[in-house]
Amino acid sequence: MLGLQGGRFEALLNFLLFRAFHLYFFPVKRCISFTAMFLLFVAMSQGQAVIEGKVTLPKPEIPAGTPARYPGQVGEVAPPDRPTAVVYLEGQFPARDTVGTNEVLQSGMQFRPALLPVQVGTWVVFPNGDDFYHNVFSYSKPKRFDLGRYRKEDRPAPVEKFDKPGVVKLYCEIHQHMRGIILVLDTPYFTRTQTNGIYRLENLPAGNFSLKAWIDEKHTYEKPVSLQPGQTLQVDFNGT
Ligand SMILES: [Cu+2]
């Protein structure tokens, strides 16, 4: 009898423990799944789409003859940056309050980076990193300017605002071989590829847009893209 009672007691205890276990853990589980669903919903409603892929880049130009030499100049001309492309999303996007600043350095008698994408309204600083004078000027329509000659020690370094979209070609009146480009874009969604052409654009909105790959002034490729929330799209540009 006592054994039976003990068995029933044990069964009851087991049942209570089982219920307590469920009551304790199930709401937590439910809570976790609700949190996960909520986070997924937030991510989807904010449209965190991604586009990644590869742009086939032109082979770097091999400079003809010996590198440029400048009388009385210290050091040799360093190789220019390897070619890259700019990939960007074109569409109607709300304007940003602050756009920020960026930089084009003059180093080894080259502009670095050789290609800089910026959003309209960005300030660009032009520090001189060499031990001799440089100059920066442009006759390009979206931005005409001439910073005059200045040295590394001349601080603060000159700065210019780029407020019209387009291609701004940079030159130095002292070193005629120097070439740089600032690509001013009317979109907050852009990136420069790596030198192997690989790129990744993150935090993109959902919708239908045009995806462009800017390689140089004569080569811009375009593909329509339809972005779904939370999606990662693969888009390659191979010169077609
Ligand atoms: Cu120079």
Short description:
It contains one helix and 17 strands. With 240 residues, it is α+β, with helices and mostly antiparallel strands.
What general outline do the C-alpha atoms trace?
elongated
Which architecture of the domain at 94-186 would the CATH scheme give at its second level? Sandwich
How big a fraction of the residues is strand?
Answer: 35-45%
Structural class: alpha+beta
Q: What about the largest sheet?
A: 4 strands, antiparallel
Poorly predicted regions: 1-6
In this entry the ligands are: copper (II) ion
Give the C-level CATH assignment of the domain at 94-186. Answer: Mainly Beta
Strand segment count: 17
Number of helices: 1
How far from one another are the termini?
89 Å
Query: How much helix, percentage-wise, in residues?
Result: 10-25%
The whole-number mean of residue pLDDT values reads 85
CATH superfamily grouping of the domain at 94-186: Cupredoxins -  blue copper proteins
Q: Can you list the strand order of the major beta sheet?
A: 13-2-15-16
- Rg result: 29 Å
Secondary-structure element string:
HEEEEEEEEEEEEEEEEE
Q: What is the CATH fold-level name of the domain at 94-186?
A: Immunoglobulin-like
